[in-house]
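INPUT
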Amino acid sequence: MAKFELTLPENTRRFLHDAGELSRFAARFFAEGFSPRYEVLEFVRQCFVVGYKSLPLAGLTAFIMGLVLTMQLHPTMVYYGVEAMIPAMVGISIVREIGPILTALIFAGKIGSSIGAELGSMKVTEQIDAMEVSGTNPFKYLVVTRTLAATLMLPILVIIADAISLYGSYLGINIYENVSFYLFFKQIFDHLLFMDVVPAVIKTFFFGFAVGIIGCYKGYYSSKGTEGVGRSANSAVVVSSVMIFILDLLAVQITDLL
Amino acid sequence: MARNSDHKEMVITIEGLCKSFGANMVLDDFNLSLHRGESLVVLGKSGSGKSVLIKCIIGLIRPDRGIIRVLGQNVLTLSHDALDEIRVKVGFLFQSNALYDSMTVRENLEFPLRRHSFNLTQSAANDMVMEALHNVGLEHTVDMMPAELSGGMRKRIALARTLILKPEIILYDEPTTGLDPITALEIISLMKAIHEKYRTSSIIITHDMKCVSLTADRVAMLIDGRCYAEGTYDELKMAQDEKIKQFFQ
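OUTPUT
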């Protein structure tokens, strides 16, 4: 009987293998994450590291983005005589798309790489094995806490970054015109709908989860010494950034159906 | 607890242990036993499977086949919680020391204490940390970070962390590798002092012949995945077998 064999290119095989392993890793997160023992102290520490310490960078980029977006928009809007719509336009853009995506990408760069490098270096120096020998489940202690912290902290960061970005926009518009704080934000909230805010916040939970789980996966299975650690950190950023865009695309499709 | 024909209590027995990585058969029907209070050296070339062997004993690597009894219990059939209970009694000194980079020496030593003793007061934990550091002569490093320590000091701190739970058995993975001869000798003296003070049973994985001659009550040679020969250092040194002689030349 003729034997049929499907031969895939090496890159495709490796991609499918990685995708499968990552899915198993994520499934293990749900299996182990919600059963005792809970690593509460480490989770709180990670929330501080992942959330609070990312705030200055996320806030600064959000502020600049709000300011620059407004300054770039202003001449065109004046040309068409619709400069009164700038607050609404900037507000919707920032809340729906720019705030979540930009903050998530900054978060992937800072936190994804840091988790990938930290866990990778722990792996190659046998610290993860030492943890297991010390009676600790390293998956719960390292992976569950970091992934959960990333999932919960990113939405908070995005909300704060959105507010800072809108404030940057308010300052940007006041470079050209005299607009009161009240009027500027009234314009925004008059046009901002419930369906603009809620899906945008919900999708950031998924972005945070993607950054956390991919960073942990890349670090946890790091190999080949220090070179492997560098590769883990780099690949954690690249893969989680791509994943953020894919999730965003899915989120837009789902929101359009609602 | 199992006893052999000489009525010596056996704390570890390994029977028919097999482990392969792909086509590479690292351990092939490996058998070994460790008696209480004994210091057993497993000698073999780099890459011969020595580290795999002790990682199988502590449950870090799952073998393909075989039986590993530690303090009377088959570690391969134990639940995770039961395995953790065994691990309290078995200390493991890693080749790379495996100190947690992000923690101070105190936090490194407290880590296993906190995981195993939920009701430990801070004062009791401090006392245990200082006692462990006193054993290795490094009390002054208690608030230092691992990055601030020399290679020998890190090895001593790792040994202190291994000792803090007062294990009955200690597994040493290449304890002198990467150290200069003087520091290596200091670590060997420390291992002997700990062995005499706490009467621990130990398995020492090494290819450092100085370490073998100074620490071994008995030597087991791991060659081709099997326990090729067993005996005292002097017995093996006198052996005529070519594979054994290579190590003693």
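end of record. Residues 131 and 138 of chain A are 6 Å apart (CA to CA).
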